[in-house]
């Protein structure tokens, strides 16, 4: 990716030389104020503490708590040490030590965060110094557990762009050439009566009636029927998504569901079988029969072929991220780094998700076959696979606005359970529903962008900003589990969209090496030797690691090397496609060989 990111909330993010400045999170800060504040942000309390910095030792300072953030400013250090942490990032608050604790700085608070860091504050033992700040922090970090509003509902920021206007379902389907004589828009779920976790507008086969859809819904987990996500502009092959069939231990069948899948197969005129990608490991899919789920058997679906993609469930992913955090924060043990990283299995899971998405994309594009993707309920692994495959196949989703549309469509409107997976405002940190599924998706996007540095309009900071506000609760974008819940809470009326912030300052998130190309499919290499840990995200809080990041000249050189590799790959693609004749018909004005020459002049 084009830019090497500076951590958003780093320990030296504020200086004291000017009277007014704008912080990296968009906050204005007057020098005569103790803390920066957003419009609608109010100060609740402050207290003298010792910040137990894992990198530089104890730091004496004052911590301020608002209804949005925890803000620490040191009082003796030069340069000034600053912590600026949105309360939504906090996962757990624990008391450290007791009244009888005698060790230095052994009495205080331990704070576990969702963004790969922990915080520890020591307090004086006299009075109720800890109780007061513990109660205030707990109240405002977990508003849902205390009958309070998310900060997003009191945020009074103003932006030049309205992010809620980015995604308009009918506009996006029209962009894809829908509806047409084979696919129609159904309003059967307009009031969420068919499926309360699906969007109100669905694209389904033209030859399937709404009565057919109701019968199919009865045989699909959570009523999540197969619906269209994307259609190939040339082959008319489609990517469909749904949940598992309710087969159960007795091997139940449903003629309406079987016929519906045949209608999907026939919609693009294909003679070959419909390809079904079940994201789960085979053994898990079989085990799901015991709870009433299952998969499409060959006997019941003779015109379909089923492939298992071996992607593990939310619990495995949660434990993998925990292991990763253990090895990257606060210290990185470099002598055992590779074996420690391997033991987390994080990159192995990234590889399996990417491999599955590549299979989906290739089957639709090269195989010219429609595909149906599901996992158990169709809102975790399914969203990863459909959105990544669409990103690989459709260059529009590689633009800033297109990626926002992709996230709104495949993740937010189709019911990825953000509230349950992230735990927004909920003190129950040990909830079994917590899982880093969306983080995994963004990591996969970053991996692809590393391999194709000119293919994406957005830069690394764009992805990091999305993840920061996945947790912050500053915007309504990721709040709640479904479109129906957001509509009930009037999220688009009462909160701001994250895309308002991003689209009001697009230059910050733009990749300077972006080359606009139409209809170029990307097929990343998903082997372990081509994947790497996203250091600028996972280890950004460690100042020692940041110091080891390349300087601007080195970074520029590395970017140019990546550009050269990308152009070589494109040159090879063109040589294969055009029987060794280099075509200059790409969207850019120069041929790949000319562009390579331009790159080489920089070395």
In a few lines, what is going on in this structure?
With 603 residues, this protein is of the alpha+beta class. The chain has 20 helices and 16 strands.
Characteristic key phrases:
alpha+beta, 35% helix, single chain, seven-stranded antiparallel sheet, five-stranded mixed sheet, membrane, disordered C terminus, PH-domain like, 16 strands, 603 residues, globular
Structural features, described:
Keywords: Cell membrane, Cell projection, Cytoplasm, Endosome, Hydrolase, Lipid metabolism, Membrane, Protein phosphatase. It is a peripheral membrane protein. The chain folds into two domains: 43-141, Roll (PH-domain like); 169-552, no CATH class. It has helices spanning 129-141, 169-175, 210-217, 255-266, 282-287, 314-328, 337-344, 346-365, 381-393, 400-413, 418-422, 437-451, 460-472, 483-488, 491-494, 498-504, 535-538, 543-547, 552-577, 592-600; strands spanning 20-22, 28-30, 43-53, 57-66, 69-74, 82-86, 90-96, 108-113, 118-122, 183-186, 202-205, 227-231, 238-241, 274-278, 304-308, 371-374. The chain is of the alpha+beta class. The longest helix is centred in the last third of the chain and has 26 residues, at 552-577. The strands form four sheets. A seven-stranded antiparallel β-sheet has the order 6-5-4-3-9-8-7, with helices on one face. The relative contact order is 0.11. It has 20 helices and 16 strands. The model is unreliable at 1-32 and 579-603 (pLDDT under 50). Helix 19 packs antiparallel against helix 20. It is globular and about 75 Å long. A hairpin with a 6-residue loop joins strand 12 (227-231) and strand 13. It starts with 19 loop residues before the first strand and ends with a helix.
